[in-house]
Amino acid sequence: MVSEFANLSLAHDIPLNNPQAGPRLSTLIDSHITEALSDDAVLHGKRTEAMFEALLISLGEYKLLKCEDKGTVHSDGSFQAPDYRVVLLDGSQWLIEVKNAYIPHPFRQQRRFMKPEYLTNMQNYASATGGELKLAVYWARWGIWTLVSPGQLIEDHRGLTLDLETGVRFNELGVLGDRMIGTRPPLRLRLEADVNEPASIGADGKISFTIGNARLFCGSDEILDPIEKQIAWVFIQYGEWREVGPDTVIHDGRCKAIEYSWVPEERANCGFEIIGSLSRMFSRYYATRTLQDQQVVQIHAPLRPNWFRPLIDADYKRRDLPLWRFKMRTKDRT
User: I need a surface site. Which of 90, 167, 182, 223 has the fewest CB within 10 A?
Assistant: First the structure.
């Protein structure tokens, strides 16, 4: 904090030992804060950068993750530090620039991200510091993350562009732990009535009862393992299946339970259905903590370190919740 004050005082020629330094710096800081909070593009951009960092922490598929663009870069040429440095499990290093792409028109999927000289400066930095440059894009309309090499960018008269189709096709986020997840539908939450309390059904059909137990099911099998209960709850809250219900279970004129189900929109496979990607589920989680009516109310959400580790770990043995985990691979464009 002192360094930031010192830099601001130097820029505005305010001696730090001046009795008025504090009030004058506070006024300047207030003006900067007001300006930043009134710029929606800046807020969404900073939120996206923070979300990417939090996503990688939840996936946990790295040796080291560092904010790279903090501090001053001193150089004898043109350099631009990307947002993050990631040391992969195999020891290689990626330097990742994060961009937010909100496209108002649903049928336009292309966005200009930077000018060629900006990319050149980042490539210079990557070459000088021993990292491979990557571009992470959050396609906000669809809640989709893609991670590509700069070679996928196309130069036109406006600058360097990328479209969603290319981003998805050459997405390398699987290297950092992203997976497509499938399980057996439906997922069910059963709220059972307390047998020691009244559970009445009124003449108007209104049901009154006290919840005595909550149980989770995958298909017809109850989920009992604590870790798998947490995983199923993540699927229910942030997966792509739709909610059905509530359905009422009545026996001998008494309400026994209320049941909610989550099912895919369409059935495409035998035995399992895709419920979504980990990165897209995380985007939904992050939105619930940072957005309100599509407006940014927070930049950061509570971190969930290794939240998705059981869904990534090849040695994880499932008990009650069947899982199909797909790691998407790409090959270089020729």
Answer: 90
The encoded tokens of residue 262 equal 């989550």
Burial 150-185 (b: 16+ CB within 10 A, else e): bebbeeeeebbebbbebbbebbbbbbbbbbbbbbbb
Contacts of 192 (CB under 8 A, 6+ apart): 211, 212, 213, 214, 215, 256, 257
Nearest CA to 50 among 207, 256, 283?
A: 283
One-letter identity of residue 14: I
Whether 307 contacts 58, CB under 8 Å:
yes
d(CA 259, CA 189): 6
Whole-structure pTM value: 0.86
Q: The tokens of 22 are what?
A: 């504090």
Per-residue model confidence as pLDDT tens digits over 99-155: 999 887 766 778 889 999 999 999 999 999 999 999 999 999 999 999 999 999 998
DSSP category for residue 16: T
For the chain, domains (ranges, CATH) are 2-37 (no CATH), 40-176 (3.40.1350.10), 180-326 (no CATH)
C-beta separation of 322 from 272 below 8 A:
yes
Summarised one tens digit per residue, pLDDT across range 184-202 is 999 999 998 887 777 667 6
Q: Tell me whether strands 324-326 and 180-183 are parallel, antiparallel or unpaired.
A: antiparallel
3-state percent helix, strand, coil for the chain, nearest multiple of 5: 30, 30, 40
Phi, psi of 176, rounded to the nearest 5 degrees: -95, 10
Distance CA 6, CA 2 (A): 6
Give the CA distances from residue 195 to residues 53, 188, 202, 251, in Å, rounded to whole numbers and listed in that order. Answer: 47, 21, 18, 12
Residue keyed to tokens 């985990």:
325
Alpha helices in 60-115 (DSSP H): none
